[in-house]
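Researcher: I'm preparing a figure for a lab meeting and need a structural model of a single chain. I don't have an experimental structure, so a prediction will have to do for now. The sequence is pasted below. Please return the structure as tokens so I can convert it later.
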Amino acid sequence: MIALIRYSFAVVLHTQRYLAPLLLFTGLMGVLTVNGNGPLPPAYASSAGALFVASTWLTVALISLDSPAQRAIVVVSTGRSAKVLAGSIGTVLISCLALLVFGLFFPLWMGSYQVGPTDLLLGTVAQLTCALTGIAIGLPCSRLVFRRRGHALVAALALVMAALFTQGAPPVNRLLRLMATSPDSADLLAPATGMLAAALVLLAASAWITQYLTTRRE
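Model: Understood. Here is the structure written out token by token.
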């Protein structure tokens, strides 16, 4: 697994496919959190939303890096296509954790917020929830399922918009609405943890569906 993650990182760094989602994330962070003040939950809602969009794009970009022939070679080398998919998910997740740290502390550096341990914990849970959901959306919108990039792009945009703007839909819309309207991080920790659990279930289901469809095609 470590070798697969190292291979994925080497390929994505060489092709520079990470640049677009990285620039999108930092741009959204600069627009949404600079010069803020007051309670932190609304600021961390912005960080989580930015990471949600960036993680979806990053997942699609990384999963779609290898051509069918290259992927076949990697699968034969590792022995199982499920292991290759798990390695790709691990690579995206590690990348998202690095962005999560930036999203956690950038608002504190650029704004004037009232910060406490509970705020930092909430920010971590919220961003991790949105990152997992973004990965879950990106997996079936990759080359593994959609051979045509246009179809994959339309599917990804539709799912991202639905997750962001469908009122009350867990985990993303529900969580971001709660954080945008409540200043008390302690009160938000319980529902945020519930949304994190929902995101984990969603990612597991998405990985299973993607692997199933990939196996049928291969």
